[in-house]
Design brief:
- With 303 residues, this protein is of the alpha+beta class.
- It has a domain at 131-193: Alpha-Beta Plaits (2-Layer Sandwich), CATH 3.30.70.
- It is built from twelve helices and seven strands.
- It has helices at residues 5-12, 17-20, 27-30, 38-53, 59-67, 73-85, 104-119, 143-155, 174-180, 208-230, 236-254, 271-300, and strands spanning 57-58, 89-94, 97-102, 131-137, 159-162, 165-169, 187-193.
- The strands form two sheets. A four-stranded antiparallel sheet has the order 5-6-4-7, with helices on one face. Strands 1-3-2 form a three-stranded antiparallel sheet.
- The longest helix has 30 residues, at 271-300.
- The chain is globular, with a radius of gyration of 22 Å.
- The relative contact order is 0.17.
């Protein structure tokens, strides 16, 4: 359950500028954004703000916000320049100030992706025992093609039963798109069937131990943080950082967990616990995070 009105009222009462920077013992750990580039962080911040506020951010405010993640002013300016050149942000000049907003097309894309991550890990669903099997062959001089195809299959939750036979439970319509994107593959076949191969256990094709480890690491890292949120011990700046960090970690899980039917998973399985922590942290950090962004904008652009 998300925090109730009492928690939100306590949070708002602590939103002053000094309190937003008050040390809580959380920030150093939260700032460990391993694997997240300053450009990705920048777009995530602006997208989250823009989804609800539809506003612009002055460049000085963006540099200030990225500084709270430990990114230098020079690094922030470089990230702004590169993201704008990629067309992900739209700059607008007003006098001596420059304002940035996320493009409508990219915003729509990011909203869709965000919802995919938020919804990841649905309740147990029935499974009819059907597997999608992809079989492909290519010559030795087409190793690059094979590598790209394997990457696409991994990102879609498939696993290699044997070298050129990849599987995933259920009827996977996106498999057709994956095959179509690799026209150089000389032979490609996709069909759904009840998989039964002598001596091969399809479940063992998936790294369930590694997936379990990622969930357990997520729980270990973020359960204490959720407890601090519930206790009202997190300031606005740390809430903003935590919001990006927990989404970054949950996204990494969503991109690597094939989300197998529960009947195939060992018990107990930690997904539901980790998802509960993510959902509550995502909700708990929302208001404080947006208030912190708005406060920094006011500091740099009072009008």
């Amino acid at each position: 359950m998300p925090p109730g009105p009492e928690f939100r009222d306590r949070a708002r009462s602590r939103i002053s500028h000094m309190d937003a920077h008050r040390p809580t013992g959380l920030t150093p750990a939260i700032r460990q954004m391993q694997g997240t580039t300053s450009q990705a962080l920048l777009v995530a911040l602006i997208a989250d703000y823009t989804v609800h506020g539809r506003g612009e951010l002055p460049s000085s405010a963006i540099i200030h916000l990225l500084g709270e993640f430990g990114i230098s002013a020079a690094g922030a300016r470089s990230a702004l320049s590169r993201v704008a050149r990629r067309g992900l942000l739209t700059p607008r000049k007003s006098g001596r100030r420059t304002y940035y907003s996320i493009t409508e097309a990219d915003l729509a894309t990011r909203v869709g992706r965000l919802q995919t991550y938020i919804d990841f890990g649905p309740p147990e669903q029935e499974w009819d025992g059907t597997w999608t099997v992809i079989v492909f062959t290519s010559s030795e001089d087409e190793r690059g093609v094979r590598a790209r195809l394997r990457t696409s299959l991994e990102r879609s939750g498939f696993a290699p039963l044997i070298d050129a036979v990849w599987i995933k439970p259920g009827r996977q319509d996106d498999a057709i798109d994956i095959i179509s994107a690799a026209p150089e593959v000389r032979q490609a076949a996709m069909h759904s069937q009840f998989l039964s191969l002598d001596g091969l256990d399809p479940v063992k094709a998936f790294d369930l131990d590694g997936i379990r480890g990622r969930y357990e690491a997520f729980i270990t890292e973020f359960r204490p943080l959720l407890e601090r949120f519930v206790a009202g011990e997190v300031g606005a700046s740390d809430a903003m950082i935590a919001r990006v960090r927990v989404l970054d970690a949950w996204r990494a899980i969503a991109l690597t967990d094939p989300n197998l039917p529960h009947v195939l998973l060992p018990t107990p399985w930690p997904q539901a616990t980790a998802r509960g922590i993510f959902t509550r942290l995502w909700e708990a950090s929302r208001d404080l995070s947006r208030m912190r962004v708005a406060e920094v904008i006011r500091q740099h652009s009072p009008a």
